Amino acid sequence: MGYVVLWMSSWSCQYCTLVNSNANSVCAACGATRDTTSKLTSLLPKAVIKPISDVANAIIDVLNDSSASVSKQLNRFLPASTAIRPSSSYPDLPSYFTSPAGSSSSDFIISPDSHSNSLDWICRKCSRANSDSLTFCEQCNERKSIGEAHFVLPLAQFPGVLQGSLLTFCLGLTFQRYRNGPSTSSGYSMPNIYGKMAAGDDMSTLCSEVMAEVERHDRENAAAAYNSIIDMCRQFKTTFIDDGFPHTPKSIGDLHSDDEGAIFGRVPKTFIWLRPEQMYTKDGRAWPWTVFRDPRSSDIEQGCLGDCWLLSAMALIAERPDVLEHILLTKEYSHFGVYQVRLCIDGQWKIVLVDDFFPCRVESRSIAFADGRKNQLWVPLIEKALAKQLGSYARLRAGRTIEGLATLTGAPVEVVSLEDETDKDVRWARILSAREAGFIMGCSCGAGKRHVNPKDFAKNGLLARHAYSILDVVQEKEHRLLRLRNPWGSFVWKGKWSNKWPGWPKDMKQKLLSGEPSTGTFWISYDDFLTHFDAIDIAKIRSYQGWRELRIPVQCGGNFIDSDKAIRILIEEPTEVCFTLFQSGARRVQDQVDLLMCLHMVSPAGTIGELVYRSARKLEAFVSTGDVFLRSGHYIVICHSFTTLGTRKIQGCLAIHSSKPIFADILPCPASMFTDSLVQLVLKEGRIHKSLTGVFPRYVTEDFSGLLLMIDNVLEDMWVHAKVECSNSHNLLSSRGALDVADSIPPLSRQILIILTHFESTQSFAVEHQLIVRVSPYPALADFAIGGGAFRVGTDSHSPSFGCKAIEQLHSRKALFVP
User: Fold this and answer.
1) CA end-to-end distance (rounded Å), the chain
2) Residue 543 binned pLDDT confidence (cut-offs 50, 70, 90)
3) pLDDT tens for residues 335-374?
4) Which alpha helices (H) appear in 526-586, and where do they start and end?
5) 3-class SS of residue 426
């Protein structure tokens, strides 16, 4: 896909991104009216980039053959909430939930006529009531939002939604925002369906918006708190001191606990906290203090803290001022020392308030950690905001650029491994495509699976276990080159295509090395890049394409409890979408547990249907499906984790990014739904063991960080006794609490026998399992039980017995056929 800068001869539709002739006032594809009121208001320079063509839109046009105006979104049919029922189990299990009396499964229509005789819409800027036929407010000329709500939805007309305790989110439509629930005249209020998962959240708010709208609302809400603090400082004639991140050693943390503590020289034993005008910098007083001064990647200098992963991400963001300006909500120097930074922490947007006191060296009074050249504050402010959110500066040590990109942009992120067996030409095309799409990219050097010698890397001007920024990707004839930057601002590549390499062709040198070289930047060939680097991190910034986002708190793992939730997805239009599951408080490797997210169709019977997509199962801070394409229909998302099975719950967030509007319902999710989800995973991806007639063992190991083993018994009158021996496996946890297990599976039934989970993520794991199967007319395992002898007599049907209720529920038997 190619991209161009739009000039006055054409305009791009803000909804479907089609490039239209300047002579047309409405979009030729979707019928949306041209926006003539937009103005660029930014303290930072930016280029407006739009795609020449949108493959997803083209596919949608073919499937739907529709040119209806986007403004008619509210008149679409939305099916009422339908109960998700469990598949039959052995023995009988209760249904997931019972539809309340009075609920209806018939379709309903959200239509202005069904709620109010008035078709007026309320201007969000001046509150004037305008005719529905008007696109712009008669009083202030503010444009009507797509899907602008004309009315308060009277939920009494939708008992299936309200009484079923289902909260519907809408991705992409702007509804009225309620502070205390819907109008009291309706007699209803929105219930808090999250319970403990969202303690403190205002669940009466029914609103999901495009990314730009989400950022705008955050900015408006933050402004009130900012102004309140400023007023207080003026009243008492003082500067702001943030007691939430005190100027004490606790906020610094332990920088001497490991080798990641010091990068440049010795870490100071003591620090002094100073404001900008009290500090000494390399630029002295040549530049007055400011937040931004034409920010560039070369402005970033790393201090004595090992957070190159974050600074590399900042260097990439510096090349995209349209992204950077949305991170720093306070864009001008504050004489009161009050700043607000917007970060995406564990999948949730948060506004972090900080003061302008920074840790400095006592002797030189220079800033000890990250610094911004030309006396710019945006670099240390972002670093401090994230340190505050994590608890201390020390917790910023060690990480990958992908983590920094996810935190700074909130966009879907992807890792491209350079160590797998992918064809290098295919990989190059992928990198080049990401660059052309305007995505942000970083890379890691010498930090993969292969053994590296840091001294050998240093001879070539590279740092092992270090993060770099990818600033450009070009192909000149047969030459494939990448332009990288070291966040240190120095120590660069010394091989072919380096800045001082004598073999540069004259034309390429004039094109790629013209002007004064930026600090820490260098060119490197694609082949040398593959030799020394192990992964590329990509942040898919697509907010300018009108993409939408929805973020929903979730919990997984632990015991199965009544507050467990599943997320039902309704797709009205075919759309490109990316699902990302985050776990909270998992920056450190030792805090990370396994995560797995499965997306299923809802079956015609209302049960968990076929697995459509899933994430890889990993012990990481987040997992993702990557970009996938979904047709119209009902889907359901199930989030799994087994490391803490039977113990504590894992709190997290599901982030959904899509090119078209998406609706989501929060449903009760008992244990049976989790098991059904895993069953569908095995049925789709499982490899079949050769076994006895009528017995079908299946197992999954690929992209699973362990093992999932299930057996189907299709025999009508015989029990299957199965023994699984995994004692030769290494660095794995068992869902049964033992590596060797045995079970008795009834006729026409199935059971998940064991789930193995990677334990210590910093070390490799090995899965080795042996399966022994026999058939018997009796349910008792007898001598087949673990530790049983040839003459053992017993009635056990599971060996060892289930240690807790959660284990029993996960491994419950399921009937193969529903009467």
Assistant:
1) 51
2) confident
3) 999 999 999 999 999 999 999 999 999 999 999 999 999 9
4) 526-532
5) helix
- Residue 185 pLDDT greater than 80, yes or no: no
d(CA 222, CA 330): 10
User: Within this chain, do residues 304 and 379 fall inside the same structural domain, yes or no?
Assistant: yes
Continuous segment of H or E residues that includes residue 466: strand 466-476
Min mean pLDDT across 316-330, 419-433, 778-792 is at: 778-792
In three-state secondary structure terms, 517 is: coil
pLDDT surpasses 80 at 37: no
Reference 602, options 81, 99, 94, 60; nearest CA is 81
CA distances from 462 to 124, 467, 487, 491 (A): 54, 10, 12, 7
Q: Does 148 fall in a domain?
A: no
Q: In whole numbers, what is the pLDDT of the chain averaged over residues?
A: 78
CA distance 650 to 639: 10
In terms of residues, how long is the chain? 819
Q: 431 and 292, same structural domain?
A: no
Residue 229 lies in a domain: yes
pLDDT at 193: 27
Tell me, what's the pLDDT at 60? 42
* Token couple for 635: 């889907």
- CA 425 to CA 412: how far, in whole Å? 24
Q: Which residues contact 557 (CB under 8 A, 6 or more apart)?
A: 593, 640, 641, 642, 643, 644, 645, 647, 648, 649, 650
* Cα separations in angstroms, 16 against 33, 37, 98, 134, 772: 12, 18, 40, 21, 57
Q: Is the pLDDT of residue 96 over 50?
A: no
Chain-centroid distance, C-alpha 36? 34
pTM: 0.74
399: domain range? 214-409
**Amino acid identity at 729:** S
Which one of 539, 557, 587 terminates a domain? 539
Reading the block at residue 14, the tokens are 């803000």
Do residues 234 and 291 both lie within one domain? yes
> 371-374: long-range contacts at Cβ-Cβ below 8 A with a sequence spacing of 24 or more?
371/281, 371/300, 371/301, 371/303, 372/295, 372/299, 372/300, 372/301, 373/282, 373/283, 373/298, 373/299, 373/300, 373/301, 374/283, 374/287, 374/293, 374/299
Residue pair 474/526 in contact by the 8 Å Cβ criterion: no
CATH number for the domain spanning 572: value is: 2.60.120.380
Average pLDDT over residues 143-162: 36
- Do both 511 and 586 map to the same domain? no
CB atoms within 10 A of CB 559: 17
**Above pLDDT 90, what percent of the chain?**
48
| Active-site annotation, residues | 308, 466, 486
pLDDT tens digits along 379-435: 999 999 999 999 999 999 888 889 999 999 999 999 888 887 778 899 999 999 999
> Is 79 a residue whose pLDDT tops 70?
no
Residue 563 has pLDDT above 90, yes or no: no
3-state SS class at 408: helix
Tell me, yes or no, whether 574 and 667 share the same domain.
Answer: yes
Q: What angle do CA 80, 86, 87 make, to 5 degrees?
A: 125
Could you tell me if 362 and 227 lie in one domain?
yes
If you ran DSSP here, which 8-state letter would residue 328 be given? B
Q: What CA–CA distance (Å, rounded) separates 382 from 327?
A: 8
Please choose, from the candidates 775, 758, 792, the residue with its C-alpha nearest in 3D space to the C-alpha of residue 643. 758
Alpha-carbon span 774 to 558, nearest angstrom:
33
- The residues that bridge with 725 in the sheet, in sequence order, are 740, 770
The mean pLDDT value for 98-114 works out to: 34
Range 210-217 contact pairs with CB under 8 angstroms and sequence separation of 24 or more: 210/172, 210/543, 210/546, 210/547, 210/548, 210/549, 211/410, 211/543, 211/547, 211/548, 211/549, 212/543, 213/145, 213/174, 214/349, 214/549, 215/326, 215/342
Q: CA angle 196-212-403, nearest 5°?
A: 60
pLDDT confidence of residue 456: 87
Judgement on whether residues 626 and 562 belong to the same structural domain of the protein: yes
